[in-house]
Design the sequence.
């Protein structure tokens, strides 16, 4: 294994925030941005995805065994009648904060054998996750569950198998190797950001971690990650907020405080601008989907 392959292998991780196989009620959501890849497979009625990019709106429809794919960070909304679905929200990351699929052009529609393979992977993950854990369980309930190392290993195998399928469907973006090497150069700063996400970090601190001048650091950071360090930190805080809203009952005020926002109104304004939904509505939407699945 080459040094670059070893680097990526050690840095690759995933997180599942929603995974279901059930009969869904009619569903229409407002425009939103999710921090993870969303996959929806439907074997029967049409499921419509609307994607907005640079002011242009595009509609993609899946039906009769097709699958919709929404890459992380995409402004989108869904519109669907009652139908059977297999769905998953999954985030594949490198170095803790980089979307592993950002190195590829992920299609918004999968058909035929490709869609069937995605459906099968989701069904397998639902079965394994159901054995090991359930969403929105309390810490006390989780601690009392019997540790199942076999299920954990099987889940990881299935999750990375799904990633392999997705990469097989996608076209690699140019300069991917160079970008990974630059991310490695920025890794000390990225680690510091993750460790002190709630604190105010200066460009000087971050540049020093990477042994770069502030000008060189800012240039490389922007070219590699597409955002300034300040923008990147705000987005990471908002992504962490999405995870907290989806997986525990901590108040919005407390989450804003934990992540270093000035106050709740400031946090709410930034969250809605980033995701398309207020923190309260975002949490309600996640909980509604989870409860709908548990009723089946």
Sequence:
């Amino acid at each position: 294994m080459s040094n670059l392959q070893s680097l990526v292998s050690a840095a690759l991780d995933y997180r599942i925030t929603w995974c279901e196989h059930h009969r869904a009620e009619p569903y229409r959501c407002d425009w939103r941005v999710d921090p993870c890849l969303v996959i929806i497979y439907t074997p029967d009625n049409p499921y419509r995805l609307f994607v907005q990019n640079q002011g242009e709106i595009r509609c993609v429809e899946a039906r009769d065994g097709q699958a919709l794919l929404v890459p992380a960070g995409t402004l989108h909304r869904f519109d669907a009648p009652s139908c059977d679905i297999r769905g998953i929200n999954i985030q594949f990351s490198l170095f803790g904060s980089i979307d592993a699929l950002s190195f590829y052009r992920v299609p918004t529609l999968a058909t035929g054998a490709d869609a069937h393979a995605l459906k099968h992977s989701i069904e397998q993950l639902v079965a394994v996750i159901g054995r090991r854990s359930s969403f929105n369980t309390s810490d006390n309930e989780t601690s009392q569950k019997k540790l199942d190392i076999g299920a954990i290993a099987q889940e990881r195998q299935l999750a990375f198998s799904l990633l392999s399928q997705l990469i097989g469907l996608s076209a690699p973006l140019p300069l991917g190797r160079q970008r990974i090497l630059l991310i490695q150069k920025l890794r000390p700063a990225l680690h510091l950001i993750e460790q002190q996400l709630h604190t105010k970090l200066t460009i000087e601190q971050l540049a020093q971690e990477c042994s770069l001048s502030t000008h060189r650091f800012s240039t490389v950071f922007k070219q590699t990650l597409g955002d300034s360090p300040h923008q990147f930190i705000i987005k990471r805080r908002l992504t962490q907020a999405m995870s907290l809203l989806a997986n525990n009952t901590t108040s919005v005020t407390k989450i804003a405080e934990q992540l270093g926002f000035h106050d709740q109104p400031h946090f709410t304004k930034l969250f809605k601008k980033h995701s398309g939904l207020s923190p309260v509505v975002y949490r309600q939407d996640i909980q509604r989907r989870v409860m709908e699945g548990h009723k089946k």
